[in-house]
Amino acid sequence: MFKYIGKRILMMIPVVLGISFIIFTILALTPGDPAQMILGENASLEAIEELREEMGLNENFLFRYVKYIGGAVTFHFGDSYRTGLPVVEEILTRLPNTLALAFFGIGLSVVIGVPIGIISAVKQYSVFDTVSLGLALIMTSIPAFWLGLMLLLLFALKLGWFPAIGITDWTGFILPSVTLAIGSMATMIRMTRSTMLEVIREDYIRTARAKGAGEGRIIRRHELRNALLPIITIIGINFGLQMGGAMICETVFSIPGMGSLMITSVRQKDVPMVMASVLFVAVAISLINLLIDILYAFIDPRIKSQYVKASR
Amino acid sequence: MENTKTKEAGGMPAPTKKNSQLKTIGKRYLKNRLAVFGLVLFLVLIILSLGAGLFADYEADAITHNMQARLQPPGADHLFGTDRYGRDVFARVLFGGRISLLVGTLTILISLAGGSLIGAAAGYYGGKVDNILMRIMDVFLAIPSILLAISIVAALGNGMMNLMIALSVSSVPRFARIVRSSILTVKGQDFVEAARAYGCRNRKIILYHILPNAIGPIIVQATLSMANTILMISSLSFVGLGLPSSIPEWGSMLSEAKEFMRYDPYLIAFPGIAIVLAVMAFNLIGDGLRDALDPKLRN
Amino acid sequence: MEHLLEIKNLHVIYRGDEATVHAVNGLDFTLDRGATLGLVGETGAGKTTTALSVMRLLPDRIGTIEEGQILLDGIDITKASEGDMRVLRGSLVSMIFQDPMTSLNPTIRVGEQVGEVLELHRKDLSKEEIEKKVDEIFQLVGLPAERKMDYPHQFSGGMRQRIVIAIALACEPKLLLADEPTTALDVTIQAQVLDLMQELKEKLNTSTILITHDLGIVAETCDQVAIMYAGEIIEIGLAEDIFEAEDHHPYTVGLFGSIPDLSKKERRLHPIDGMMPDPSDLPSGCKFHTRCPRAAEQCSLQAQPLYQRGTHGIRCRLYADWEKQQ
User: Does position B9 have pLDDT exceeding 70, yes or no?
Assistant: First the structure.
């Protein structure tokens, strides 16, 4: 098992390096001189040149990238152009909010979406199936931020059940989580339904029927477990999307998370902050997918047995 | 399973000309009620947004500020009411459709071109080329598209052109993957071997033999990507990283309306519904096309 | 009750989106206790459909038994409730499917998969007794009992088919339906699996319907043979009738013609011209007339009954002088 986990972690490294290189390259295209920006309009040419030298801006691009990665390994991601403080500090206070939001959102969509998908597949063509597919269709088409606005309008402004702004306590998470969950719930319903339908048509289900197993037993013992595997992968893929959705949602609910941080940083051309934010979010997503892969290996005997020698 | 084979033998269309194949696909599509509904929505969308000029005047209704008529509720004069600057919301929603369709279509075309090129090269040449190109695509896919788009906008700044670049870059890998896998499936088939055997040049094989056969999944992906792109355009504009707010665009309209929503909820209702309907139209068409192209996939 | 299985005038259809497929069209045959019947025919002749009808496992909503009776040990399967069928499946009648690679559940240990049948039908057994029984069955099909803790992917195709056989025979059913049990296996493994089935059949006195398109296998293992074409039996008889007698349906002649015979000097095989007719659009009259080398005008007009002589029956006008069956 350790070998498998080790291999997965090793496989993560090139991906993270690749992501950092792409983002670094894109951000290097930013026009304007950071030194000038920090020192303001009236700074003297000498002062700007001095700061450029100090920041290493005169070095060549590849050298700067390698230096950046060198810093990143020791957890130094540079200082914000805006505040002058290390970017890590601000990111670490905000990342948990976004992660929590994404987790709540995906958790909710799994808890509700997966059972709906299963029932839909088992009762294919029934009224339940038609209605849930219709709902899923509408849910995929609603932009999360608009749904957020509508929920905010109804439950916070009109009914006053939840706070409209920020997160003072856990109730602040409810509306944003529901908003996020609805978008990915559609995917969960559709994907669960289609993987379940695939499993239902497998030969081994027919074998189970030929044994004389009843419908309930077939669903519980034979179908669920096999359908669960692809569903777990879908949850992993969805997590990336969910982080993106969470960042947009934050702006609706005025939650201090990565999304609002990145948006302000982009507006103010705070390159180190944008760079580090993207990197942190990307690594967080990779780590979640790593966890999912490991979980997968525990459930799927086909992967497990490649790495664990059975004790017989 | 014997019975499915029987059924296939029974239902398999005779390998005749392209035309009759298109006809069966069309027939299958039209049988699907949801898909037809999507098509109708799409046509309405096209007529309303391309014909927006017939219902309203771009400059006078959608752009010029008219402070005497600000924040008027929906009524006979202004079907969807007016916004904080007295602009007609109905006119802005219509012209907003034009923007979304235009930016969306161009984005899809750019990413389709890029993706096809990369995917075709990877799929056709295989080996090292394939490996390197697809690993790069994997890395791009590992970045959530919204992050990638935000980074690109951060580097290039706001604006329609930059928005299109940002959105295209994030959907290129998807097209590349589809084109590649279509090519890999077609590649092994006899008629490609035959074309190669009588000395077709590589480029010609890709253009005349492989791409026409890969077109189905590409169109499906393009339609579904269109839905996603429309969502992304409005999301980015909503957070102020897309189009400038002077341009009538659904997302930026919502962003502007946010502070007035308590007392003038119509301001956030109409642009939002417009997004939902537009996105739904493309989703329905995409799903319908996929089912019509490959009925076996249909559940 | 002298017959274990009696099928009378069975009609099965599949309703598709575009067309209705007539998979089985008026099937009649009987199977004696302890006997083995070979059901032979091309893909799409309706062999699997027949077996699935006996199991009442036709695809939901699509496949239906339109007409006819299936009497299994005196019970009319076509009228039994789903609950009754669940009791019968696995205990009175079992089925072995074609592909052992896909017919075992990949996430459940094979021992549990065999044990499940016992759990379902032998409520009198305790957990330990079931475990013991599973060990015995594993030995019976030639697998070491300690491998019951493994998962299907850890076995080869031949071994998996042994597990499938173990599942099918765990409750010692009276009827076993084997749907091309060896088609997916290597030739050398085929013989082993067939021998195993033969041996167990004798040990447990199970009647078997062996579905195959391989006449060689039939010659080795079957007492009776039924040849199906387009959902009908066109020739039926004891193995001697089919393999040794001179009189045959032209289709049977064609089937034999497509097997290379090393003892004869002939250089060429004589496969049957043309394809099976589209089962959603069957020809009128004799369904084989479109491909029959001996077709006459009347063949396209009038469907033929089965003409019988002793144990041998043929559905062809050439044997009209034999005794006519209803």
Answer: no
Q: Which two tokens stand for residue C172?
A: 């010692």
For chain A, give the mean pLDDT.
86
Long-range CB contacts (within 8 A, 24+) of B126-131: B130/B180
Q: What is the pLDDT of residues C257-309, one digit of tens each?
A: 776 655 655 555 566 777 778 888 888 888 888 888 888 888 888 888 889 88
Name the residue range of residue B114's domain.
78-298
Inter-chain CB proximity C16 and B11 less than 8 Å = yes
Residue A32's contacts (CB-CB under 8 Å, 6 or more residues apart) are A269
**Ranked by mean pLDDT, which of A132-146, A284-298, C242-256 comes out on top?**
A132-146
Chain C nearest CA to A306, separation (Å): 10
Which CATH superfamily, name and number, covers C3-92+173-324? P-loop containing nucleotide triphosphate hydrolases (3.40.50.300)
pLDDT of amino acid C99: 87
Which candidate in C12, C21, C98 is best for mutational testing of the B interface (most B CBs within 10 A)? C21
Mutation test of the interface with chain C: which of B1, B2, B297, choosing the one with the most C Cβ atoms within 10 A? B2
Complex ipTM: 0.85
Domain ranges of chain C: 3-92+173-324, 105-172
Q: Structural domain boundaries of chain A?
A: 2-73, 94-311
Tell the CATH superfamily of the A94-311 domain: MetI-like (1.10.3720.10)
Q: State the chains in contact with B (3 or more Cβ–Cβ pairs under 8 Å).
A: A, C
Q: What is the CATH number of the domain that holds B114?
A: 1.10.3720.10
- Of all residues in chain B, the one with the smallest CA distance to A156 is B262
B12 touches chain C (CB under 8 A): no
- Determine the Cα–Cα distance for residues C22 and C12; give it in Å rounded to an integer: 6
| CA gap B256, B274 in Å, rounded | 16
Mean pLDDT, rounded, for A117-145: 92
The Cα of C259 is separated from the nearest Cα of chain A by a number of Å equal to 31
Q: In B, which residues are within 8 Å of C21 by CB distance?
A: 3, 6-7, 10
Q: Yes or no: say if C236 and C325 are a contact pair by the CB < 8 Å rule.
A: no
